[in-house]
Amino acid sequence: MKNIVLIGMMGCGKTTISQLLGEKLKREVIDIDQYLIEKHGCSISDMMSISEDHFRDLEQEACLELSKKEGVIISTGGGVIKRQENIDALKKNGIIIYLDRPIQNILTDIDTQSRPLLKDGPEKLYQLDKERRQLYMNACDIHIINDQSLEMIVNLIISKVG
Hints:
The protein is of the alpha/beta class. It contains 8 helices and 5 strands; from the N terminus they run E-H-E-H-H-H-E-H-E-H-H-E-H. The protein has a 5-stranded parallel β-sheet with strand order 2-3-1-4-5, with helices on both faces.
């Protein structure tokens, strides 16, 4: 059974939607950021404070480990697409779904102060979207605009992954 892998910008709904999918499909859910926190015993902010490269190395290691699982739902961090090795690993046994949430919707939903990459303000989100949108599009098997109810998005994903 293939993994379902959710990618997209921070705040696009990956964590919430992965949990709802897990409940509905009776599958294990793994949030890569949470996995890293538990494995390394420190926060994402702490990992990033060493350097972004340090964090990306740990994230890549996690992608390689988690891609070996079967039938799980994986919620990735927003920057997972910055390294092609991550996508290659996750695609081996997974269907990659890009949750594309309009930036203005994300800004009304999240606390930008709690996100290390957004400490400089909300305009950073627009910049990240501009930098990453094509990477998300290139990486995904399924592209879903997340601008409907959670239930509708979850049902849409289930209908597309079979």
